[in-house]
Design goal:
- The structure holds 2 protein chains of 2 kinds.
- By secondary structure, chain A is mostly helical.
- Helix content of chain A is about 65%, strand content about 0%.
- In chain A, strands 1-2 form a two-stranded antiparallel ribbon.
- Chain B has one domain.
- In chain B, helix 7 packs across helix 8.
- The longest helix of chain B has about 35 residues.
- The radius of gyration of chain B is 20 Å and the shape is globular.
- Chain B starts with a helix and ends with a helix.
- Classes of the chains: A mainly alpha, B mainly alpha.
- The interface between A and B is medium-sized, with 20 and 32 residues.
């Protein structure tokens, strides 16, 4: 009799509690240990891998439940990613989610870049953290130079797609960056597994960058001779500094901005904020 | 040598009959099944998650075997004086300690093999049909090597557990000392790295000197942890692994020899 009473009470109370807690989703709390990431390894000991998996699962559930996340909550999310990186910097899912959620969701590209850099240093076989870093610099921050530098560094990773050094060279508008880009691209031509179209792409890009270098050098000579930069590239011909303008392999004339003195082989526009 | 082998075999049979061992294996099997479910919650690098979980389960089960099977067997022998039954035979204390260690060590090795096969199966099932989500350099050879070094770290911990049981007056104290030793051994390298990387103290501070001194006394079990290396197929230095093997074996031997020396001097009554 007593047993039946308590069994009935158990079933009824369980039903009530389940109904009460039904509305709760993963969003109601992100429970992370509020410890610095460096201390996480002490807590995890030899179980750092699964602890990283567990924390990432919590963070993913929290960010994936669809509700609006406040700035304070985003700080907790970033702490979670930092803790996962401290425990396991090699995990692919961490940097992919950091890129997706911190750069796009939280609109904090610098934090995303910082997390991607941790992954990049550990995952020496993976070009993607570097690719995403370069993208964030270009797209969110409008920092073409940093984007170019990162793309060029990333192009050294084995089996890196040809697109990445091509992007890096595209953003290389400063003289020293153009020269570095040419060196990287010429080195890439030595890779044994390149197909014909990739070789053609790289050769075209090298030719375009060399044309940019010739024009930049000519603009510098014009400035040294006349005290101010030219108003257009035709002035270089008129002044006798160049006999002819270098030909652009992309079938369009080189563009010159008299205000910023940038010379381009394409018409890519700045998109950064 | 025959006496040692006999004691080892009796200890081994004793452990096999112990129901706690089956409980541990059953727990391991449940966790391996859970591994397949948990892996499904991740989108990328399922192989890494499965390998991490599998190897962590082996490690965890090994620790449970040491704390809940090996330590009670040894501790009870001494506390309940059943060791007299063995020592009343023409068996020396050294034979007893070495035989016990070999018997319990064999249990740990066999459970590692069994749980390792279960882990491999759970990894295989977890990543079935998910070829692109396996780290590119993963190899079963490295997975097996990681289990071997994990087992070696458990054998080192077992030798330390023997040392504490034979030197302490109460079984519970030995358990606490073994747990403390386990945490220190797994964290001393991390503590040193944290202190040096955050520059809280200089590299010639007293804390660093103390940590360096401790590394000569207690084993650095972090070095035997190859889970991340196995999960990602990271490159390994064969020479380093060879030195690690020599270090692990020699530490266990030295620890057992010290235990034998102390046990021979110990008054059991």
């Amino acid at each position: 009799m007593c047993f039946c009473f308590f069994l009935a009470t158990l079933i009824a109370s369980n039903r009530v509690i389940k109904e009460q807690r039904n509305h709760l989703s993963a969003h109601y709390a992100l429970s992370l240990l509020n410890v610095p990431p460096v201390a996480m390894r002490l807590i995890a000991g030899e179980f750092n891998g699964i602890m990283a998996d567990f924390i990432l699962m919590q963070v993913s559930s929290f960010t994936g439940c669809g509700k609006k996340i406040s700035p304070h909550e985003w700080e907790k999310v970033i702490l979670g990613f930092d803790q996962v990186m401290a425990l396991d910097p090699y995990f692919e899912q961490t940097y992919l989610q950091a890129q997706s959620e911190i750069a796009w969701g939280a609109q904090q590209p610098l934090e995303a870049i910082r997390l991607l850099d941790l992954s990049r240093k550990s995952r020496f076989w993976d070009y993607r953290p570097g690719f995403y870093m370069g993208f964030d610099y270009y797209y969110f921050l409008g920092d073409y130079d940093s984007a170019s530098k990162i793309f060029m560094e990333t192009s050294q990773v084995a089996h890196c797609p040809v697109l990445i050094p091509l992007l890096g060279s595209r953003f290389a508008i400063k003289e020293n960056r153009s020269q570095a880009s040419i060196l990287v691209l010429e080195n890439m031509l030595n890779q044994p597994d390149l197909d014909e179209s990739s070789i053609r792409e790289i050769e075209n890009r090298i030719s375009a960058l060399k044309g940019v270098l010739i024009l930049e050098d000519a603009v510098k000579k014009y400035r040294d001779r006349f005290g101010s930069p030219p108003e257009s590239l035709d002035r270089l011909l008129e002044a006798g500094i160049l006999n002819q303008l270098p030909s652009n392999p992309y079938s369009m004339p080189y563009t010159y901005d008299p205000l910023s003195h940038e010379i381009r082989f394409d018409d890519v526009k700045r998109m950064g904020k | 040598m025959d006496k040692i082998r006999l004691i080892a075999w009796i200890t081994f049979k004793d452990c096999i009959r112990n129901k706690a061992l089956y409980g541990i294996f059953f727990m391991g099997l449940i966790l391996f099944s859970a591994n397949i479910i948990i892996t499904g919650m991740f989108t990328w690098e399922l192989g890494k998650v499965a390998v991490d979980m599998g190897l962590s389960i082996i490690s965890f089960s090994g620790l449970i075997i040491i704390f809940f099977l090996c330590l009670p067997i040894l501790g009870n022998d001494i506390e309940k004086k059943t060791v007299y039954l063995i020592l009343s035979r023409p068996v020396t204390k050294a034979h007893y300690i070495i035989g016990k260690y070999m018997g319990l060590g064999l249990i740990i090795m066999i459970s590692s093999v069994f749980l390792g096969l279960c882990a491999a199966l759970s990894v295989k099932i977890s990543v079935m049909g998910a070829g692109t989500f396996i780290p590119p350099h993963f190899s079963w050879g490295m997975f097996t090597l990681s289990i071997c070094y994990l087992t070696l770290s458990l054998l080192i911990l077992l030798s330390l557990a023997f040392f504490w049981v034979c030197t302490s007056t109460h079984h519970f104290t030995a358990v606490l000392l073994t747990i403390m030793t386990y945490f220190i051994c797994h964290n001393m390298e991390n503590v040193k790295n944290i202190i040096l990387s955050t520059k809280i103290m200089s590299s010639d501070s007293l804390s660093i000197k103390v940590i360096n001194a401790v590394t000569w006394i207690l084993p650095n079990l972090t070095a035997f942890d190859l889970k991340t290396t196995a999960a990602y197929g990271l490159p390994v230095n064969t020479l380093s692994l060879s030195w690690l093997l020599i270090y692990g074996v020699s530490y266990s031997v030295v620890c057992i020899m010290l235990t034998v020396l102390i046990f021979q001097k110990r008054e059991l009554s």
